[in-house]
Design a protein that fits this description.
With 205 residues, the protein is an alpha/beta fold. The chain has helices at residues 2-17, 85-100, 171-199; strands spanning 27-28, 44-50, 63-69, 72-80, 103-107, 117-129, 137-148, 154-165. Strands 1, 2, 3, 4, 5, 6, 7 and 8 form an eight-stranded mixed sheet that branches.
Length: 205
């Protein structure tokens, strides 16, 4: 009996080692976070908390989402993000606002510092759209809401949607197009957020 069990374990081990061909590792595509900072953006003497965006389970992933048809979604093979899509959006927003130098501080939740305003984000699209039948279009879409913490009053809410055509149909080009659309949308969001904060009573240069 012991001999039979030992042979069975050896057989399973060899099957695992000598099984079918391994899948090729995914290429990690790291989106550039250097969204454009405009000279005309106003400054506001405020501390802003940027909350991790909410998103569907399909988007809350490191895999690159694609839309092969208007009513179909799938993940692209061979590529992935270094983090999930909501975190990439949060990182890009924080980086851009920090580089702008227009706010006293840009914070993450749990940083230990008290913010005066919070930026809530709802990620709707972060995908390569192939539904037109040609090279993909990178699409990023999200809703942003600015809220004053002390009063719970919303300063404003706006939907941002950006698109960038890919150079070719391959997965790497699709991910790059999404990254470029992300940079455009984040730059627009930063300008809008700073204008709303400056209008709330913060310092404006």
């Amino acid at each position: 009996m012991k001999r039979s069990v030992g042979l069975l374990l050896l057989t399973l081990t060899l099957a695992g080692c000598l099984g079918g061909p391994r899948k090729a590792p995914r290429e990690i595509v790291a989106p550039l976070l250097d969204a454009a900072v405009a000279a005309e953006w106003p400054a506001a003497d405020q501390q802003l908390i940027v909350v991790a965006p909410s998103a569907s389970s399909l988007l809350d992933s490191r895999r690159v989402l694609s839309r092969p048809a208007p009513d179909r979604l799938a993940y692209l093979a061979g590529v992935s993000w270094p983090d999930n899509a909501p975190r990439l959006l949060q990182d890009a927003v924080i980086d851009t606002l920090q580089r702008s130098g227009r706010l006293r501080a840009v914070l993450r939740p749990g940083s230990g510092l008290r913010g005066e305003f919070v930026l809530n984000l709802d990620l709707v699209r972060f995908e390569a759209d192939y539904s037109a039948g040609r090279a993909s279009t990178g699409r990023v879409e999200f809703t942003a809401t600015l809220v004053q913490l002390a009063s719970g009053r919303a300063l404003g809410s706006r939907r941002f949607a950006c698109a960038q055509a890919a150079d070719t149909r391959d997965a790497g080009a699709a991910a790059t197009a999404i990254s470029q659309a992300l940079r455009t949308c984040v730059s627009e969001l930063a300008g809008w957020s700073l204008a709303a904060l400056a209008g709330s009573g913060g310092r404006s240069d």
